[in-house]
Amino acid sequence: MNRHAYLILAHSNFRQLRKLVELLDDPRNDIYIHVDRKAAFDRQCLDNACRHSRLVILDNRMKVNWGGVSIMRSEIALFEKASSSGEYRYYHLLSGMDLPIKNQDTIHDFFDRHPDRQFIDFWPMTPDTESRVRLFTPFPEGERNFIVHAINKTFRNIALKCGFTINKDVDFRYGSQWCSLTGSFVEYVLSRKAWLEKTFAHAIICDEIFIPTLVWNSPFRDEIFSGSDGNPCNMRLIDWTRGGSIRHPWTFVSDDYERIMASECLWARKFDERKDPAIIDMIYDTLKPAANHGK
Q1: 8 Å CB contact between 5 and 30
Q2: Which domains occur in the chain, in start order?
């Protein structure tokens, strides 16, 4: 039996998170969750959410900041915890605001039919994206603070005018941080932990860059999965067209249900119980009976 590890980054909406965990609960899966230390989180909200999976909530909770290196570090912490706790064929990185849109039998069958592939998106690298990792940012954890952002921007503008760049010899790549990776590649990621820290310690929004860059510059590049359109695919349904910005994907609502469930993808993001709890319940009610199939 091929075992899978689900790695979840969560920061809010914990009733919604419980539904996600319940839909992932399966003897073939273990579930690892990192909760932002800034969040008011009570572990009891997930009591008895799993009957079949091992559920691990990381004790060492980091403060996770938008645009900060802390996002990369929390992902690596999840990889480390899972890899030290079991042997997994695949690791699936999800947000706490994601949901599966296929049952676990369908998901496992898909990966059994497509073994040893890295499921990850790649997007065009623009000059603005390149600047995230080429220009020195003194305080990357403070990008959402007005004063700190102004200081960072000043440093970056000076560096740009002086032609001073960092990471000159790195061939960066860019894509969604949400991905499904083989156990072999996760071992490779962890072997590069020191390099990742050195390279991205003074970069911003590197969560969308560090894994695509590692895959691209490694032997695992030949394992990148291509979808039905011939392009790299992470098997996540994400609507970037209606959210107003590539940094703000559309939040699905009840009217999207038919489109979501007809997708070839295995998971979708994002959902928000504060905006439309009904769509979460619709998917949950559709998949929950199948989640206990054969158990």
Answers
A1: yes
A2: 4-124+173-291 (3.90.550), 127-162 (no CATH)
Q: Give which of 112, 79, 99, 115 is closest to 214, Cα–Cα.
A: 79
C-beta atoms surrounding 12 within 10 Å: 17
Residue 257 host element (H or E): helix 257-262
Q: How many Å apart are CA 199 and CA 206, to the nearest integer?
A: 10
Torsion of Cα atoms, 12 then 18 then 24 then 27, to 10°? 130
pLDDT for the residue numbered 294: 40
Reply yes or no on whether the pLDDT at 88 is more than 80.
yes
pLDDT at 292 over 80: no
First to last CA, the chain: 15
pLDDT at 124 over 60: yes
Max CA distance (Å), the chain: 64
Cis amide bond preceding 270, omega within 30: yes
Q: What is the pLDDT of residues 22-37, one digit of tens each?
A: 999 999 999 999 999 9
Task: Please report which confidence band the pLDDT of residue 226 belongs to, taking 50, 70 and 90 as the band edges.
Answer: very high
Report the distance separating Cα 267 and Cα 269, nearest Å: 7
Using only C-alpha atoms, the chain has a radius of gyration, in whole angstroms, of 19
Q: Which residue has the tokens 């991905």?
A: 179
